[in-house]
Amino acid sequence: MKKWLLGNTLPELKLITESLSLPSFTAKQISDWIYKKRVSEIALMTNLSASARDALSSTYEVGGFAPSKRTLSKDGTKKYLFPSFSSAPIEAVMIPDEERSTLCISSQSGCKMGCLFCMTGRMGFKGHLSTGEIISQIMNVDEAENLTNIVYMGMGEPMDNIENVLKSTEIMTADWGFGWSPKRITVSTIGVPAALKSFLDRSKCHLALSLHNPYDNERAELMPVQKAWPLDEIISLIKSYDFTGQRRVSFEYIMFSGWNDTKRHADALTRMLKGLECRVNLIRFHQIPDFSLKSSPDLIIENFRNRLNAAGIMTTIRASRGEDILAACGMLSSKSQMN
C-alpha cells in the first residue's frame, strides 16, 4: 500500500523529496498541487519532471477518501460517510446557512470519552484519524471549493488526537497550504488539560468547550471525563489565555429538561465564566435511543438565555440542523449508516 502525500506539511514534504534525491524546490511544488490546485494524481503534477513523478509514484500517492454515502436533510444539511484506515467509517456534516458553508469534521473514528448523551461515545474508540484523513474530509465533500468554516465537532475528541489535529490546522492556515485565516476554524473539546494547553499555545484557531453543566458532581453523571479532569481546572486554564483579540472561546451547553436548565444552573454558569470574554451556545438536545433525559422546552431555553445575557454573558440558541438524518449534535455514529 502506498503512502499518502496528503496530510504532510511542507517540512515533511521536504524530507520526502530529500529521501528521493529530488531538488529542494520540489516540495513546494507538491504542496501547491495538493493543497491549492487539489489534484488527485501525481501524474497531474506537470511542472515536476517525469523522473520526479516516477520516483514519487513508486512509494506515494496523493491519497484521500471519496465519500461512500451522502444523506441530505430536508433543511439542506448533508451528511457524508467516509472510509477510514481504522475498523469503522467516519462521518462529516455540511451545514449551509445563507453566506456560510460550515463543514463539521471528525478527528477520530469513535471516541474514548463515553459521554452518555452522545451516539459517537457509544461506538467506543476505533482509532485516531491521520492528518491526511482529517484533511481528506475537507477536500472530498461536494462543497469543497465553497466552504467558509470548519468545526472539529464531528466524531471523536480532537484533543485526544492533538498532534494530527494541529497538523491539519497548520495545513489549512499556512501560506503553502489552504491559506485560510484561523478565524475560520473552531476546535471543540470536553477538556483534556495537557492537550488543551498545547492547542492554546500553538494555534490561533477558535476554541469551543463542551460544558453542559457548571456543577462538578452533576457533570460527572453524564460525562465521565469530569472525574479525571475537573471543570474548574479547565476553566482556570482557559482564563489564563487572552480571548479579547482575534481568537474566540465559546461554551457549548446542551439543554436537558430538569437537569441543567434552572436558574441555579444559569447563575452558577455566570459565576464560573465571570470576567472571561466568551460566548455560550445553548443547544437543544436531540433524542437518542435508551437515554432518559429530554430536551428542555423552548421557553425554558429562552429564559435561560435571557438570564445569562442579562448577567453579561453573551448567549445564543443554536438552530437545530439535520436531526432527520441523524446529523445533529451528539447523533453522529457510523453504525447509523451501515444498514
Strand content: 15-25%
CATH class categorisation of the largest domain: Alpha Beta
Query: What is the CATH H-level superfamily of the largest domain?
Result: Aldolase class I
Q: Sheet with the most strands?
A: 10 strands, mixed
> What's the count of strands?
14
Query: Share of helix among residues?
Result: 25-40%
Which architecture of the largest domain would the CATH scheme give at its second level?
Answer: Alpha-Beta Barrel
User: Please, how many helices?
Assistant: 12
CATH topology of the largest domain: TIM Barrel
Classification by helices and strands: alpha/beta
* Average pLDDT level: 93
Query: What radius of gyration results from the CA coordinates?
Result: 21 Å
Shape: elongated
Low-confidence stretches: none
Please report the distance between the alpha carbons of the first and last residues: 29 Å
Order of helices and strands: EHHHEEEEEEHEHEHEHEHHHEHEHE
- How is the largest sheet built, in terms of strand order? 3-4-5-6-9-10-11-12-13-14
